[in-house]
Amino acid sequence: MREDIRVGVFVCDCGSNIAGVVDVPQVVAYAKGLPNVAFVDEGRWSCSVDALSDMQESIKEHHLNRVVIASCTPRTHEPLFKRNVKEAGLNPYLLEFVSIREQVSWVHMNEPEMATDKAKDLVRMGVAKAVLLEEGEEIRLPVKQECLVIGGGVAGMTAALNVAQQGFDAIILEKEPHLGGILNKVTTVSHDQNEMAAADIVKAKVDLVETHPNITIYRNAAIEEIEGYIGNYKVTLKPNGDGPGEPLDISTIIVATGMKEIEPEGFYGYGTDPRVVTQLQLEELLRNAECRMPSGEFRMPNSECRIQDVVIINCVNSKNETRGCCNIGCPVSVKNALALKNLKNDIRVHILYRDLSMVKEEHFHLDAAKEAGVKFIRFPDDRYPEVTDESGRLCVRVHDILLGREFTIPSDLLVLTTAFKGDDTVDEIKGLLKVSASADGFFQEAHAKLGPVDFPADGISLCGCAKSPKNYRESCEEGIAAAMRVSIPMKNGYIEAEGIVADIDLTDCNNCGLCYKRCPYNAIKVVEEAEPAVIKALCKGCGLCAADCPKECITIVHYSDEQLLAQVEAALEEEADKKILGFVCHWCALGGVDMAGVSRLQYPPHARLIRVMCSARVPIRLIERGFELGAAGVLVAGCEFPTCHYITGNYACETRVKRAKKRLAKRGYDPEKLWNIWCSAADGPKFANTMREMATQLDLV
Fold first, then answer.
1. How many domains are there within the chain?
2. At 457, which CATH number?
């Protein structure tokens, strides 16, 4: 017998953040008339200690067995309310969250009536889903105390030391014969307004890790295979690149694979003219004793010609349409310019830059460089310096936008400050660990603010230049942070994994194999009689398998087809032709929605958004249902390419949307009314602009 559903709706004023635009009492009154709603409450600050306590009392007093919170974004406050309802004796998976601040009051500030109507719709959608919610449970996994650190650079060594100092076992895997990473190519390191020899730093770190009893080091080694999950990783090493694999039982993993310089082929004669080098190559020249004459002169290797004029050009092959700022180029160029002046003061050094991106701690170098006579010339973004060879000598022509004139500078050595990319092993490790990386080979963290050293997969952290270019201090700090993250489950001895996982009903399964072939985490295995089974410890609940399943045999806890369909129908219950039905992934796309709200970017109030964990969770049948019910348009929004928190989710979504458009056209619907966008968590303007464009093209405004 089905239980008596009693939904409690808690609508937050959020001070004036919500109530300043939305008529909250009207929303409360509306919610009281919705089916299965047994209690409705208006709170001024629902996340306050007193309000949370009152909520617990209301749940008990009114025997509520479902809860809908209408307040701010679930990305920040959902865990708090989950804990609160759990303390009241209710399963936390019986909670549904509705964002009427970021999605309503903050983005429709000039349209209070329409904002109130939208808030009502969102509450109705939340209640419709809540009625169908079922209990879920976290999965407790045992975790032991062995941590594998992939990469023996400064970040990896720092992480290993911090893991080992807590009494855990740390295993460093380094593909090179020597530890130290990119620091082995650097002359000096700036730290706390001091110059330190990079070789001394590497030696000190190596001595510490080599002598620590809890650290094991594998050099000249690679990974052959990784299987399992947090607390139960089976890692097979391939020492020296060949021979039989050596198996290791690992509980947690830290990725610290570092980075390498992108050689700027085709820029300013690089690769054909030995006088054109990169910053790392300059560092090697400065380390090379053969380049220094007894008189203090500086020369190229195997040459008696002294270097008197050095020109440094910043932002070469970076900060453009292809990639952003390289993060460390400006301070490195200033540091090396100062090193040249310290080597011999009469060397003339010019730094040509677009802008100088340097944090406060790095300005001591800038001041010292200016005092030493280093010249700085700022050139326009769209007018890079030009280099010619005149009478056997390089000449650099540059327009100084501060002085408004052009200079021609002779150069014996041209130094290019270029971009970086992830290590060559990134693609291989990405496949082994089932994680994401950018086009330049930098690993993608779970969330820039909420999980800066975490991967979406539990038990795997990242640090240092494996994530993005960093200086010495930042690499050390991230190494410590990654060590702390993996130490928590090792200290506790267990981890509770999220209960949003796939569940397969084999009744109608035809063993087509789509689910286990396409699962980005290999979380579905084939067991006896070719039947698929979910390894719940590996499943991340992305929902790709459920959307693909032709027999609809797969359910995702908290995001079942029935629950999502209920939201679709509730969203389009009234005036469907004036509404845009939207499906947004919980991570980046919803982050973009939230950022538009935080930034108070105003856009038309036609969207009714449904949260899914991944854009790959959206099946074609739900899109079709939206059009059947008369929606003006449908939007599917996911993470910005090529990154996806579920590895291949946005690729699967893109393919499915293309198929959906063909099916819509066959059924007589306009396929151009189905939109698909990719939005980063920081790109609020992109989401707001999309809403404006859709409203305009769909004739809603």
1. 5
2. 3.50.50.60
Q: Which of 405-414, 426-435, 559-568 is modeled with the greatest confidence?
A: 559-568
- Looking at 451, 472, 495, the residue that finishes a domain is 495
CA torsion sign for 621, 623, 624, 625 is positive
Would you state the pLDDT for residue 244?
61
- Judged against a pLDDT cut of 90, whether residue 535 lies above it is answered with no
Considering the domain architecture, whether residues 369 and 435 belong to the same structural domain is answered as no
Query: Degrees (nearest 5) of the Cα angle 301, 353, 305?
Result: 20
C-alpha span between 556 and 562 (Å, rounded) = 10
Domain that holds residue 371: 279-317+331-415
> Is 323 inside a domain boundary?
no
pLDDT at residue number 2: 58
DSSP 372-390: HT-EEEE--TT---EEEEE
> Which stretch of DSSP H or E encloses residue 119?
helix 112-131
| CATH number of the domain bearing residue 534 | 3.30.70.20
Report the amino acid identity of residue 252. T
Residue 161 burial (10 A CB sphere; 0-12, 13-18, 19+) = buried
- CATH assignment at residue 26: 3.40.50
Are 130 and 221 members of one domain? no
Give the whole-angstrom CA distance, residue 299 versus residue 73.
60
Q: Tell whether 365 and 462 lie within a shared domain.
A: no
In a domain, 324, yes or no: no
Backbone angles phi, psi at 494, to 5 degrees: -165, 170
State whether the Cα torsion 181-184-190-191 is positive or negative.
Answer: positive
Residue length, the chain? 701
Q: What is the pLDDT of residues 217-259, one digit of tens each?
A: 999 989 999 988 899 999 998 866 555 677 899 999 999 999 9
Measured CA to CA, the distance from residue 102 to residue 112 in angstroms comes to 14
Final residue belonging to a domain, choices 495, 519, 544:
495
| pLDDT tens digit sequence for 284-314 | 888 876 566 666 677 777 776 788 999 999 9
Burial level of 112, CB count in 10 A (0-12/13-18/19+)? middle
Task: Name residue 405's beta-bridge partners.
Answer: 400
At 633 the three-state DSSP class reads strand
453 and 581 co-located in one domain: no
Q: Is 660 exposed, middle or buried (0-12, 13-18, 19+ CB in 10 A)?
A: buried
- Residues 520, 586: one domain? no
Strands 276-278 and 413-418, by their bridges, are parallel
**Residue 421: pLDDT above 90?**
yes
* Residue with tokens 């209990």, as numbered in its chain: 135
Q: Tell me whether residue 3 is in a domain.
A: yes
Cα separation, 651 vs 629, whole angstroms: 27
- Count other C-beta atoms under 10 Å from residue 35's C-beta: 10
Percent of the chain residues topping a pLDDT of 70? 96
